[in-house]
Amino acid sequence: MFATALKYGLETVHGIRVTHCASLEALRQEMTAAPDSFSLAVLDLNLPDAPNCEALDFILANNVPAVVFTAAFNDNTRDQILGRGALDCVIKNQPESINLLIGAVDRALTNGKTTVLLADSDTPSRVELAGILRRQRISVCEVACSADALLVLDSGEAIDIVVTDLDLSDMTGAALLAEVRRRQGDEALPVIALSDSGDRRIGARFLEAGGTDFIQKPFLEAEFNGRIAYAAGIQKRLQTLQRQAASDYLTDIYNRRHFFLTGPRLVEQCLRRGETTAIAILDIDHFKRLNDTYGHEIGDVVLKHVAKRLTTLVGDEHLLARLGGEEFGILFNGFDVQRAFTFCEKLRIELARSRIVADDEELSITVSIGLATIEAPESFENYLHAADQFLYMAKHAGRNRVISELALLDALAS
């Protein structure tokens, strides 16, 4: 009954593929047939052919995270199970046990995709906290001071939550919170603080300043895990909503709104690192003529094709978005104008070589690109306007080319 209900809940509610094994022998066969196919195991402590936790030992020996679901339970049992390396333990004979177990599975899978930036100047404390997080399958990036924490955030590393001690060596945790919020604005990461101070007003002030949570030391490991898991769950749901709001409905790449929200922060990070960067606007040549000749449905096919090729060529290193119509924007991450120009030339050539099949007819396209250098703090609109001016020059000069100040200087020199 439990296996059927759990399988139904996980597959229908969460879209998780579930394989049911009624015995240790069946488990061994599944693991042998597909050793790297499973992200998590949910298991009873006692199976017909494994009455003494042999299934748990087998699962953990194969490096598969485990959530235990058992009728035999007390605090001692729980401590023993968690001490052996299980992620969580849920009792069968309590109300809403199926829902509680599904929640435990959801948390475990979320933790497996979560990265925490841990800032603590006290090495023993940092090592202990990192160990607790890693036991929950959470990836940890450890730093000893706020300066290093901000460098990690500026580097663009994928961080989901910041956990900081309030007493850092170079800045208070509250000051770190303020700096994160200043740099990231409305999309600031959740920041959780810890402190062993006896002054409880410190936690209240941190929360009033916009902190996500405050944990008083010493704490129970289960309490710490629960608060981190709760924050991670909310952050993942928020990230999903942000991705939906940031996506262009047709091409499924970032939209103009996301480009204007995220671009200024990325530029600030590059300039703070002492790097120049560049911004490009790419426009499909003669797109109106294509729409008039073949219809808007074919025009949509072309837009999707260009977006897909750009996504492959640009990757995650740089910010790519559809700005509207047949225009796409690229904000380069730390490329000077020479590297950006070479990159844009490659994009132009690759797109001209590609072929689009629509209604059994093969089409080809070309693009024009305007490229502007970013060397000093200005409004983001100014950077985009400069790239737009170079795009206009590229169109005026005959299309299917990249124009930047570099190209203009080369033309003058010749």
From TrEMBL:
Domain Response regulatory: 1-107, 115-232
Keywords: Phosphoprotein
CDD domains in the record: GGDEF
Pfam families membership: GGDEF (PF00990), Response_reg (PF00072)
Catalytic activity line of the entry: 2 GTP = 3',3'-c-di-GMP + 2 diphosphate
InterPro entries xref list: CheY-like_superfamily (IPR011006), Diguanylate_Cyclase (IPR050469), GGDEF_dom (IPR000160), Nucleotide_cyclase (IPR029787), Rev_trsase/Diguanyl_cyclase (IPR043128), Sig_transdc_resp-reg_receiver (IPR001789)
Molecular function (Gene Ontology), one example: diguanylate cyclase activity
Iron keyword on record: no
One CC-aspect GO term: plasma membrane
This protein's name: diguanylate cyclase
Coiled coil ranges: none
4-aspartylphosphate modified-residue sites: D44, D165
